[in-house]
Amino acid sequence: MSRMPCEEIRMPTPQSIEELCVRAQALQGRMVCEVAQFLHVAIPKEPRRSKGFIGQLVERILGSDPAAGDRPDFTGLGVELKTIPVNTHGIPKESTFCCSIDMNTADTEKWETSRLRKRLACVLWVPIESALLAPMPARRFGVPVLWSPSLAQEACLRSDWEYLMGAIGAGYGGVLSAREGEALQVRPKAANRLVRTVAPAQDGAMQTLPLGFYLRAVFTEKILKDT
DNA sequence: GATTGATCATAC
DNA sequence: GTATGATCAATC
I need a labelling partner for A211 at 20 to 30 A (CA). Which of A4, A18, A77, A104 fits? Predict the structure, then answer.
Protein backbone atom coordinates (compact mmCIF):
# COMPACT_ATOMS: atom_id res chain seq x y z
CA MET A 1 0.00 0.00 0.00
CA SER A 2 1.13 3.52 -0.67
CA ARG A 3 -0.52 6.89 -0.61
CA MET A 4 0.32 10.41 -1.59
CA PRO A 5 2.08 12.33 1.16
CA CYS A 6 -0.01 15.00 2.84
CA GLU A 7 0.51 18.40 1.35
CA GLU A 8 2.88 20.62 3.27
CA ILE A 9 1.06 23.52 4.89
CA ARG A 10 2.03 27.17 4.85
CA MET A 11 0.14 29.47 7.19
CA PRO A 12 -1.46 32.61 5.73
CA THR A 13 0.61 35.74 5.95
CA PRO A 14 0.01 37.87 9.06
CA GLN A 15 -1.73 41.19 8.44
CA SER A 16 0.04 43.17 11.14
CA ILE A 17 3.22 43.17 13.13
CA GLU A 18 1.15 42.48 16.24
CA GLU A 19 -0.32 39.39 14.65
CA LEU A 20 3.12 38.24 13.59
CA CYS A 21 4.48 38.69 17.11
CA VAL A 22 1.57 36.83 18.68
CA ARG A 23 2.19 33.91 16.38
CA ALA A 24 5.91 33.93 17.06
CA GLN A 25 5.25 34.00 20.79
CA ALA A 26 2.96 31.00 20.42
CA LEU A 27 5.98 29.03 19.23
CA GLN A 28 7.73 29.52 22.53
CA GLY A 29 8.36 26.19 24.24
CA ARG A 30 7.28 24.18 21.23
CA MET A 31 9.52 21.52 19.81
CA VAL A 32 10.59 21.42 16.17
CA CYS A 33 8.86 18.06 15.74
CA GLU A 34 5.53 19.46 16.97
CA VAL A 35 5.61 22.27 14.44
CA ALA A 36 6.73 19.94 11.65
CA GLN A 37 3.91 17.53 12.41
CA PHE A 38 1.36 20.33 12.44
CA LEU A 39 2.54 21.48 9.01
CA HIS A 40 2.81 17.96 7.57
CA VAL A 41 6.49 18.54 6.95
CA ALA A 42 8.85 15.57 7.15
CA ILE A 43 11.89 15.97 9.37
CA PRO A 44 15.17 15.33 7.57
CA LYS A 45 17.23 12.48 8.96
CA GLU A 46 20.74 13.78 8.42
CA PRO A 47 21.48 16.99 10.36
CA ARG A 48 24.48 17.64 8.19
CA ARG A 49 22.22 17.87 5.17
CA SER A 50 19.45 19.96 6.69
CA LYS A 51 21.08 23.25 7.63
CA GLY A 52 18.29 25.50 6.51
CA PHE A 53 15.46 23.28 7.67
CA ILE A 54 14.38 25.04 10.86
CA GLY A 55 14.50 28.43 9.19
CA GLN A 56 12.23 27.22 6.43
CA LEU A 57 9.93 25.53 8.93
CA VAL A 58 9.49 28.80 10.82
CA GLU A 59 8.82 30.62 7.56
CA ARG A 60 5.93 28.23 6.97
CA ILE A 61 4.43 28.42 10.44
CA LEU A 62 4.62 32.22 10.55
CA GLY A 63 3.39 32.66 6.99
CA SER A 64 6.22 34.53 5.34
CA ASP A 65 5.98 35.34 1.64
CA PRO A 66 7.71 32.46 -0.17
CA ALA A 67 8.35 34.73 -3.16
CA ALA A 68 9.93 37.51 -1.10
CA GLY A 69 13.23 37.14 -2.89
CA ASP A 70 15.45 40.11 -2.17
CA ARG A 71 12.75 41.81 -0.07
CA PRO A 72 12.02 41.19 3.63
CA ASP A 73 10.43 37.84 4.41
CA PHE A 74 7.21 39.57 5.43
CA THR A 75 7.01 41.90 2.48
CA GLY A 76 3.90 43.74 3.60
CA LEU A 77 5.24 44.36 7.09
CA GLY A 78 8.86 45.05 6.21
CA VAL A 79 10.04 42.43 8.67
CA GLU A 80 12.94 40.05 8.13
CA LEU A 81 12.84 36.66 9.87
CA LYS A 82 15.93 35.05 11.41
CA THR A 83 16.05 31.87 13.40
CA ILE A 84 19.07 31.77 15.68
CA PRO A 85 20.52 28.76 17.49
CA VAL A 86 21.08 29.39 21.21
CA ASN A 87 22.33 27.30 24.12
CA THR A 88 20.36 26.63 27.30
CA HIS A 89 21.29 30.09 28.60
CA GLY A 90 19.95 31.81 25.52
CA ILE A 91 23.44 32.63 24.23
CA PRO A 92 23.81 32.37 20.45
CA LYS A 93 25.90 29.41 19.37
CA GLU A 94 26.65 30.67 15.88
CA SER A 95 27.12 33.82 13.90
CA THR A 96 24.16 34.88 11.77
CA PHE A 97 24.28 35.12 8.01
CA CYS A 98 22.88 38.47 6.85
CA CYS A 99 23.35 38.83 3.12
CA SER A 100 25.68 38.09 0.29
CA ILE A 101 27.96 40.81 -1.01
CA ASP A 102 27.98 42.16 -4.52
CA MET A 103 31.72 42.53 -4.52
CA ASN A 104 32.02 43.96 -7.98
CA THR A 105 30.15 47.15 -7.04
CA ALA A 106 31.66 47.46 -3.55
CA ASP A 107 33.58 50.58 -4.52
CA THR A 108 30.43 52.57 -5.32
CA GLU A 109 27.98 51.42 -2.65
CA LYS A 110 26.85 53.61 0.20
CA TRP A 111 25.77 52.51 3.66
CA GLU A 112 22.47 54.35 3.45
CA THR A 113 21.30 52.31 0.48
CA SER A 114 23.17 49.11 1.24
CA ARG A 115 21.67 45.66 1.14
CA LEU A 116 22.87 45.02 4.67
CA ARG A 117 21.19 48.08 6.16
CA LYS A 118 17.91 47.24 4.48
CA ARG A 119 18.14 43.64 5.60
CA LEU A 120 18.68 44.52 9.23
CA ALA A 121 16.22 47.41 9.46
CA CYS A 122 13.62 45.29 11.23
CA VAL A 123 14.28 41.68 12.24
CA LEU A 124 12.16 39.15 14.08
CA TRP A 125 14.62 36.90 15.89
CA VAL A 126 13.30 33.46 16.72
CA PRO A 127 15.72 31.62 19.03
CA ILE A 128 15.92 27.87 18.77
CA GLU A 129 17.23 26.29 21.94
CA SER A 130 19.38 23.29 21.36
CA ALA A 131 20.44 21.66 24.57
CA LEU A 132 23.65 19.68 24.51
CA LEU A 133 23.48 17.26 21.62
CA ALA A 134 19.70 17.60 21.43
CA PRO A 135 18.51 15.97 18.24
CA MET A 136 16.99 18.52 15.93
CA PRO A 137 13.35 17.39 16.30
CA ALA A 138 13.56 17.87 20.07
CA ARG A 139 14.89 21.42 20.01
CA ARG A 140 12.54 24.05 21.38
CA PHE A 141 11.72 27.57 20.33
CA GLY A 142 12.59 30.38 22.70
CA VAL A 143 11.34 33.91 23.29
CA PRO A 144 11.09 35.82 20.00
CA VAL A 145 12.50 39.33 19.73
CA LEU A 146 11.43 42.06 17.31
CA TRP A 147 14.44 44.28 16.81
CA SER A 148 15.58 47.36 14.96
CA PRO A 149 19.13 48.65 15.41
CA SER A 150 19.64 51.29 18.08
CA LEU A 151 21.61 54.37 17.10
CA ALA A 152 24.70 52.89 18.69
CA GLN A 153 24.20 49.55 17.01
CA GLU A 154 23.69 51.13 13.63
CA ALA A 155 26.81 53.24 14.07
CA CYS A 156 28.76 50.08 14.86
CA LEU A 157 27.37 48.23 11.87
CA ARG A 158 28.02 51.17 9.63
CA SER A 159 31.60 51.48 10.76
CA ASP A 160 32.28 47.80 10.12
CA TRP A 161 30.43 47.85 6.83
CA GLU A 162 32.31 50.86 5.52
CA TYR A 163 35.64 49.37 6.50
CA LEU A 164 34.89 45.95 5.02
CA MET A 165 33.21 47.19 1.86
CA GLY A 166 35.92 49.78 1.47
CA ALA A 167 38.54 47.05 1.59
CA ILE A 168 36.68 44.98 -0.99
CA GLY A 169 36.16 48.00 -3.20
CA ALA A 170 39.85 48.83 -2.98
CA GLY A 171 40.79 45.38 -4.21
CA TYR A 172 41.48 43.57 -0.95
CA GLY A 173 38.45 41.27 -1.00
CA GLY A 174 40.67 38.30 -1.72
CA VAL A 175 42.75 38.75 1.42
CA LEU A 176 40.01 39.81 3.82
CA SER A 177 39.43 37.39 6.68
CA ALA A 178 36.65 36.76 9.18
CA ARG A 179 38.84 38.35 11.88
CA GLU A 180 38.08 41.84 10.66
CA GLY A 181 35.12 43.77 12.04
CA GLU A 182 33.69 44.18 15.54
CA ALA A 183 30.06 43.26 15.01
CA LEU A 184 30.14 42.32 11.36
CA GLN A 185 32.47 39.94 9.64
CA VAL A 186 32.87 38.70 6.08
CA ARG A 187 33.03 34.99 5.42
CA PRO A 188 32.75 32.81 2.35
CA LYS A 189 29.23 32.39 1.01
CA ALA A 190 29.41 29.77 -1.67
CA ALA A 191 28.71 26.15 -2.47
CA ASN A 192 32.42 25.39 -2.10
CA ARG A 193 35.86 26.96 -2.13
CA LEU A 194 36.19 26.77 -5.89
CA VAL A 195 33.33 29.18 -6.60
CA ARG A 196 34.44 32.51 -8.03
CA THR A 197 32.93 35.94 -8.54
CA VAL A 198 34.29 39.16 -9.95
CA ALA A 199 35.70 41.75 -7.56
CA PRO A 200 37.78 44.89 -7.90
CA ALA A 201 41.55 44.45 -7.76
CA GLN A 202 44.33 46.99 -7.31
CA ASP A 203 44.79 46.71 -11.04
CA GLY A 204 41.41 46.15 -12.68
CA ALA A 205 39.34 43.12 -11.65
CA MET A 206 39.92 39.69 -10.20
CA GLN A 207 38.16 36.36 -9.76
CA THR A 208 37.65 35.60 -6.09
CA LEU A 209 35.61 33.60 -3.60
CA PRO A 210 32.23 35.25 -2.96
CA LEU A 211 31.79 36.69 0.53
CA GLY A 212 28.77 37.39 2.69
CA PHE A 213 28.14 39.49 5.79
CA TYR A 214 27.63 37.72 9.09
CA LEU A 215 26.77 39.11 12.52
CA ARG A 216 29.08 37.93 15.28
CA ALA A 217 27.49 36.04 18.15
CA VAL A 218 28.59 38.70 20.66
CA PHE A 219 26.42 41.19 18.78
CA THR A 220 23.31 39.02 18.48
CA GLU A 221 23.70 38.03 22.12
CA LYS A 222 23.14 41.65 23.12
CA ILE A 223 20.15 41.92 20.81
CA LEU A 224 18.45 38.97 22.46
CA LYS A 225 19.40 40.17 25.91
CA ASP A 226 18.51 43.86 25.66
CA THR A 227 15.41 43.80 23.51
C1' DG B 1 36.02 25.34 23.31
C1' DA B 2 35.45 29.22 20.20
C1' DT B 3 36.08 30.91 15.71
C1' DT B 4 36.97 30.88 10.89
C1' DG B 5 36.60 28.96 6.54
C1' DA B 6 33.78 25.54 4.08
C1' DT B 7 29.75 23.51 2.97
C1' DC B 8 24.65 21.67 2.28
C1' DA B 9 19.50 21.96 0.75
C1' DT B 10 15.99 24.07 -1.90
C1' DA B 11 13.52 27.37 -5.21
C1' DC B 12 13.69 29.59 -9.44
C1' DG C 1 23.95 30.03 -11.89
C1' DT C 2 21.45 33.24 -8.37
C1' DA C 3 19.01 33.69 -4.65
C1' DT C 4 17.11 31.98 -0.25
C1' DG C 5 17.72 29.29 4.45
C1' DA C 6 21.91 28.52 7.69
C1' DT C 7 25.24 24.94 10.29
C1' DC C 8 29.23 21.96 9.79
C1' DA C 9 33.90 20.87 10.83
C1' DA C 10 38.79 22.09 10.45
C1' DT C 11 41.73 25.00 12.77
C1' DC C 12 43.47 28.02 16.18
Answer: A77
Q: What is the extent of the structural domain holding A123?
A: 17-226
Q: Does residue A155 form part of some domain?
A: yes
Q: Closest nucleotide to A190's CA, by C1' atom?
A: B7
- Single-letter code of the amino acid located at A37: Q
Structural domain count, chain A:
1
Give the nucleotide with minimal C1' distance to the Cα of A97. C6
Distance A195 CA to B12 C1' (A): 20
- CATH number of the domain encompassing residue A185: 3.40.600.10
Output A46 or A40, whichever has higher pLDDT.
A40
- pLDDT tens digits along A99-157: 999 999 999 999 999 999 999 999 999 999 987 567 899 999 999 999 999 999 999 99
Closest protein CA to C1' of nucleotide C6, residue = A52
Domain-located, residue A27: yes
What residues have CB less than 8 Å from A74, skipping those under 6 apart? A13, A14, A20, A62, A64, A65, A68, A80, A81, A124
How much is the pLDDT for A61? Answer: 96
A11 occurs within a structural domain = no
With CA atoms as reference, report the closest residue to A181 among A223, A214, A151, A225.
A214
More confident residue, A8 or A32: A32
| Residue A113 DSSP SS3 | helix
